[in-house]
Design goal:
- It is a single chain.
- The chain is an all-alpha fold.
- The chain folds into two domains: 2-105, RNA polymerase sigma factor, region 2, helix turn helix motif (Rna Polymerase Sigma Factor, Chain: A, Orthogonal Bundle), CATH 1.10.1740.10; 126-195, Winged helix-like DNA-binding domain superfamily/Winged helix DNA-binding domain (Arc Repressor Mutant, subunit A, Orthogonal Bundle), CATH 1.10.10.
- It is built from ten helices and no strands.
- It has helices at residues 2-11, 20-30, 33-55, 58-75, 85-105, 126-130, 134-143, 146-157, 162-169, 173-195.
- 25% of the residues are buried.
C-alpha cells in the first residue's frame, strides 16, 4: 500500500517488520486502521485454521473468524502484554469456538469430561503421535473429543509451551501436563480401537 510505503519512509519502520506488540500500541495510540489490518492479515489464516479444526464447517469457521476479530478489536486495550499477542489471540479464538460448540450442543458441560478420567496409565511416547501416518492421524483426530483435539493441536501442531497452554486454558501447569497425558492416552486408545495394531 502507498500509505504503508510513506509511513515506512517517514518513520524508518515498515509495518511488516513491526512486532505484534508494537502494532497493538500504535493502533491504541492512533486508532489508525492500517495497524489492525496488519494484525488481521498476519493472523486471520491461522485463526481460520483453528476454527475449521474445531468447528468442522467452513461457513461456521469463516463467521467465527469475523466475530473473533471484532472481539479482538473491541478488547485490544485489554491486551496486557504479559503473554505474546499470538497466545492472547489463540486464547480468544479457542474460547470462542468452544462456546460456539457448547451452544450448538446446548450443554454447557459438553467438554467437562473430554480428557478427564480416573485411570492414569503409562505416558504415551510423543513419537507415537509425531511419527504416525498422516491419513491415520486425520481419522483419529476426527474421532477424538474436541477437548482432546484442542490440547493436542496446541501442543504438537502449534508447538505451544505448557506455560502458554496454561494461560489459554486458565489452568495450572501441572493440570495442563495431566491433560496432555490423558489426551495422548485417549488418542492411543481410539487408534487401537480403529486399527487394532
Amino acid at each position: 500500500m502507498f500509505i504503508d510505503f510513506i509511513y515506512a519512509l517517514l518513520t524508518g519502520n515498515s509495518l511488516s517488520k513491526m512486532k505484534d506488540e508494537e502494532i497493538v500500541q500504535e493502533y491504541l495510540a492512533t486508532q489508525n486502521a492500517r495497524y489492525f489490518d496488519q494484525l488481521y492479515s498476519r493472523y486471520s489464516g491461522k485463526v481460520y485454521g483453528k476454527c475449521i479444526s474445531l468447528l468442522k464447517n467452513e461457513a461456521a469457521a469463516e463467521d467465527a473468524v469475523q466475530e473473533i476479530f471484532v472481539k479482538i478489536l473491541l478488547n485490544l486495550s485489554k491486551f496486557s502484554g504479559k503473554s505474546k499477542f499470538s497466545t492472547w489471540l489463540y486464547s480468544i479464538s479457542y474460547n470462542f469456538c468452544i462456546d460456539t460448540i457448547r451452544r450448538k450442543k446446548k450443554n454447557p458441560n459438553a467438554f467437562a469430561d473430554d480428557i478427564t478420567g480416573h485411570e492414569i496409565a503409562d505416558d504415551v511416547d510423543d513419537r507415537f503421535l509425531l511419527e504416525m501416518n498422516i491419513e491415520r492421524l486425520k481419522v483419529i483426530m476426527d474421532r477424538v473429543p474436541v477437548g482432546v483435539k484442542s490440547i493436542l493441536l496446541m501442543k504438537y501442531q502449534d508447538e505451544m509451551s505448557i506455560k502458554e497452554i496454561s494461560a489459554i486454558l486458565s489452568k495450572s501447569e501441572s493440570a495442563i501436563k495431566m491433560k496432555i497425558k490423558r489426551a495422548k492416552q485417549k488418542f492411543k486408545k481410539i487408534h487401537y480401537e480403529i486399527y487394532k495394531d
